[in-house]
Fold this protein.
Amino acid sequence: MPPDLSYKWPYSALEAASGWEAGGDTPFRQRDLPETPRQLAHDSRWPAFFPSPICFVTTANGEEIAFEKVVGPSIVNRFPYIAALSFCREELSDRHHVRGRFAELLESGGSVAIQFLPQGDQLVRAMKAIAEISENRTSERLAIAGLETRSAKTVDAPILKDAYLVYEGKLVKPGKDFSGDPIYDKPWSDVGSHRVYFIEITAIQLREDIAQGKSQISWGGLPEWKPDPSLPSATGVSPKSGMAEHYQKGYTPRYKFPAANTVAFESDDHAHGMAIKHLAALPQDQIEVDNDRARWPCFFPSPTAMITTWTSDKQANLMPCGSTTIISRHPLIIAPCISYSAINERYGPRASLDIIRQAGSFGCGVAYIDENLTKAIRYSGTTSFTDDPDKIANAGLSVSPRARAPQLNESPIHFECDVVGEIRLGTHIMFLGEVKSILVRQDLTPDTPMTWSPWADIKEADGAPSPANGAPL
């Protein structure tokens, strides 16, 4: 029987001894941050669950290869197409320790291959090698694990032979955004205990059977959970009149690629059983890209965060954000990326951007797979606060007042964050939100945990049409 690759949280009771306190007359427990260095050394696991995918990353300097895993890789900008990878730079615990050798090789070689393995033996062996072979022996991990590699197309980092999806990329170079403002004076940023590297994607490799629609990537973008039916749950969308006329993004937590609601994978080349798409340096005429062609060119595992803010007149605002990740452990930093550049309806300036800036804080709720909650995410994600100031209620959700940000009663986990910085990325702003407190609903327990898989799976296609090369579905 294959090993269980899922993750359950909480794994133990949320007790006062570990910093959790009852929330008075509310059905939530609360824990305040940051922890002390002693607390971190004892247990540096994330203090609450956040749905983060995991990938494997290789880098090389011409002589030596490094192999690591990254928790929470994220696409953070659309033009240029940028992935963010975060590596620990401070010794916090045996779990969170300095990835010094990997950083040295990445910064000297300048390139990486971000890779995803199908669930199975190869994935288990890769995880085992990283867990058991020390970071200063990172160049030995691939050989000891028996993982075969081959050359990439556009970078020097090797590719795992059994990877079904590979993003090749290089440390991003300084440039300017569509407004002429400078971006990426450095290809990384030091944020708390971690260094965040910004990788410009140069090519994407996708296994041929997936690119042809014979197989599909199956991804659960939200965790599974069964809440207490007596506590708040999403009640269904009642859209404001006229909202159907606006551009609507699709959303499903049970995402499949390719499928009838995705774009086709537009390959330029084929080799080693892979379809390959090359991404050129950013052409200025991409500002005219239409909504469909502005979509991500291929699947990348992305969760959904429920970002809440107070407007200047204390109205509650909600923006579901797919490009959200945790980039530092101490302090715990949550980083949602929000569009600011006028590309098209899909990527245009978001009202939430200025609302967060004015508030100086935001909330980050964790959702779960539920039909009404999915509808609420679709509606609130495609409806601007400027068009519907009551979009939270119209999405079938409710809030409780908190000092920093509105708390969604339907979210079983809520992070309260102060904005401590922002990074301009080209089309998106990355907000740096330091977590000050966490609230967890009391019906989320070890007996009724959230279940999450940080890995996508590959399955036989379920009858979705095979996409023609170059033609968006």
About this structure: The CA atoms of residues 227 and 443 lie 6 Å apart. The mean pLDDT is 91.
